[in-house]
Amino acid sequence: MSTALITGASSGIGLALAEKCLSRYSRVLLLSFDAPELEAACLRLGSRAHPVVCDLAYADQGEGLLERLEGEYGTLELLVNNAGIGHHGEIAELEEVVLRRLMEVNFFAPLSLCRQALRLMPPRRRGAIVTLTSASARRPLARMGAYGSSKAALHGFTQVLRLEAAAHGIQGSEVLPISVA
Questions:
Q1: 131 vs 79: CA distance, rounded Å
Q2: Maximum Cα–Cα distance for the chain, whole Å?
Q3: Cys-Cys crosslink for 78: which of 4, 42, 116, 132, Cβ 3.0 to 4.6 Å?
Q4: Between the CA of residue 10 and those of 18, 35, 40, 44, 111, what are the distances in Å?
Q5: Model pTM?
Q6: Is the pLDDT of residue 152 over 80?
Q7: CA–CA distance, 128 with 120 (Å, rounded to integer)
Q8: How far apart are CA 7 and CA 13, in angstroms?
Q9: How far is 10 from 33, CA to CA, in rounded Å?
Q10: What DSSP letter does each residue of 26-50 carry, written as one string?
Q11: Burial class (CB in 10 A: 0-12, 13-18, 19+), 96
């Protein structure tokens, strides 16, 4: 049985990816902090879609998560780091608490999940990690400095991840969406 985990999967890109993954994986785990939206998404997708309620803004909720999920659902073959939060506003007006939450969800949570995957996948010499960053990681936009900075940090990390993961037979990929309807 093959399993995929997609963060930020209760709506938008994450939900669309979950739907696509059902054609390739035996189980698709949808992770989100929004339990009602997540339950509705899983009901829509069917019995092979499973909800994982977790708020990635809190590091302790993500600690050891992949190992626990493998214990319950079996071998994780795909990790998609899709969860993210945006922020529009000038840097001078940015509240520290907003910046820290944004960095926790957009950078530190995917970094933690990747590190966990890199402990689980190498012995099997297979697996894939896909990380969604943003075109704003490469092209800064006014009033999106905090968001763009968090995605730029994730972009840099993902480039190193690709190199290090390949040595263990794991595929690392990055998607840089421009905008999403």
A1: 8
A2: 50
A3: 4
A4: 9, 9, 8, 11, 21
A5: 0.95
A6: yes
A7: 11
A8: 10
A9: 9
A10: SEEEEEES-HHHHHHHHHHH-TTEE
A11: exposed
Collapse the DSSP code of 24 into the 3-class scheme (helix H, G, I; strand E, B; otherwise coil) and give the result: coil
Residues 136, 142, 146, 151, Cα dihedral to 10°: 10
Catalytic site residue from 25, 58, 73, 147 = 147
45 in Cβ contact with 67 (< 8 Å): no
Helices (H), the chain: 12-21, 35-45, 59-62, 65-73, 96-103, 109-120, 145-166
| Residue 147 annotated among the catalytic residues of the structure | yes
Sequence length of the chain is: 181
- Rounded to an integer, the average pLDDT of 52-61 is 97
Structure tokens of 26? 């035996």
d(CA 174, CA 110): 12
Q: Which of 135, 121, 115, 116 is nearest to 175 (CA)?
A: 135
Give tens-digit pLDDT for 112-150: 999 999 999 999 999 999 999 998 888 888 888 899 999
Residue 128's SS3 state is strand
CA angle 132, 133, 137 (to 5 degrees): 165
